[in-house]
Every structure is written in structure tokens, then in C-alpha cells.
Amino acid sequence: MSNFSLKIIFCTSLALLAFSGNSILCRLALGDNAIDAANFTTIRLLSGIIVLMVILKLTKNNNELQSKGSWGASSMLFLYAITFSFAYISLATGVGALILFGAVQITMILASLISGNKLHCSEWIGVLVAFTGFVYLVIPSLSTPSATGFLLMTIAGIAWGIYTLIGRGSKNPLSDTAYNFLRTLPFVAILIVVSFQDAKLSQEGILLTILSGGIASGVGYTIWYIALGGLSVTDAAVVQLLVPVIAAIGGVLFANEMISLRLVLSSSMILGGILIVFLGRDYIDQLASNRT
User: Fold this and answer.
1) Domain coordinates in residue numbering, the chain
2) What predicted TM-score, i.e. pTM, was given to this entire model?
């Protein structure tokens, strides 16, 4: 296995761990009403800006090409952050995850198809197996979602899918992510103006949000942009289904939650589906070439 492949595997794993941590932090902050959705979004993005700009300043290389993200990516980042926050407070965790990751999968796979990249039959099978395992994992917490929550979480999933697609072309992930966060400042300023009267803050909520924005989001999204350099659109879409599995395993390890048969079976299905997506095309093509 090449050093490049090892780097992509390592970065993908770190990014998924960051996403899972973010999921837990969001649940603790928003689910326990430690902070309101608007301020969660504001502090999350501001924390990301501060942390990333400090890292960028400390690691700046004058000989390195400095790219500064784009307004398109920044708009998608803010749209994802704000719709996710407000959707989260009106949806059960399982329903929210199902809508979010379903929208991400559909957005990225459709984009791949529209761009002319046909999915191999093994990739379709892998996506189906992994998504079935994901649905099986969240079934116990499914309930009828509110129309507003469903719409907002769908928009969040589409926005995140587009943000991920834009990131596949990043030449300098740290700089692009830092400036994508920085470009959200005008949107954040508007959000502060329209929501400050309804602010609900607590020390715990602020701390959880800072960790979510500065580490799990800011640093995590940078690592994700690095990983995207070695992932196909389908790979990037399906591998994100591991996030709720990692979060569930984290609950077992750190919150004394029980290992359930459902977790074992669903994890196996998701991992199996991902392996089919990653390895199926080459394996089938190799079999076909051997027969000829």
C-alpha cells in the first residue's frame, strides 16, 4: 500500500472521528437545551474561524500557494450549520441522522451521475447494503418528523453534500477551510442581529459549542478536505455512514452503554457495504479480465 493511500485512510479515519465527536457535542449542547440553535451556530463558526486562523498563521509557508476558499463553499457551510442547528432541536436523533445522511448520499451520488461518472454495479450494491445497515441502526429512534424539521435537515444534507463536492478540488485544505469559515462572518453578523433577543446561554453550552466549532468542525473539516483528495465521490458519500456507528461505539466506550446485537449487525452491514464500494469494482474487473 502506498504512502498516499495510507495518508488518505488515516485522514479519512480522523475526519470521521471528528464528525462523530461533533455529533455527540451537538447532542449534548442542543439536546439538553444548554444553548439555543442560533447561538450554537454563531459560536460554532466563530470558534472555527479563530482556531483555523491561528493554525494557518502558525503554519504559514511563504513558498506555498495560498488558496482562499470560495463564497460558494462558505455559503454552503453556513447553510449547513444554520439549518442543521434548527432542525436538530425539532427532530429525534435517529430521524435527524436518517434525513441528513440520506440527503448527503442522494446529493453526492446524483452529482456524480450528472457529471458523467457511472456507478459500477458493485458500487450500487455497496451503497444499498451500507445504507440498509444505517437505517437498521437508527430504526429504534425513528418517529414521524415535523415538516419543518424534515425540510431543514434535508437542506442541511444537501448543503453538506455540495460543500464536500467543492472540497474535492482543494489544493490547500487548511487555507481553503480557514477562509471558508472566515467568509461566513457576514452571515454570522446577520444571525447575531436577528437572534440576540432570544439568546439562551450556559457555560456548559458555550464550552461544548467551542469544542464543536474549533476542534470537531474546524480541524475536522480541514482533515476531511485532505482525505477527499484520494476519495471518489461515491467513496466520500458512503464512508460518512460510519459516523453514527462510531458515535454509538463511543457511547459504549465512554458512557457505559450496552453493546447491542443491532449495533453489531448494522456496523457489519455498513462496513461490508463500504468495502464493496471500495474493492468491488477492481475485484469484478479483475475477474472479468481473467475470464478473457
Assistant:
1) 3-291
2) 0.89
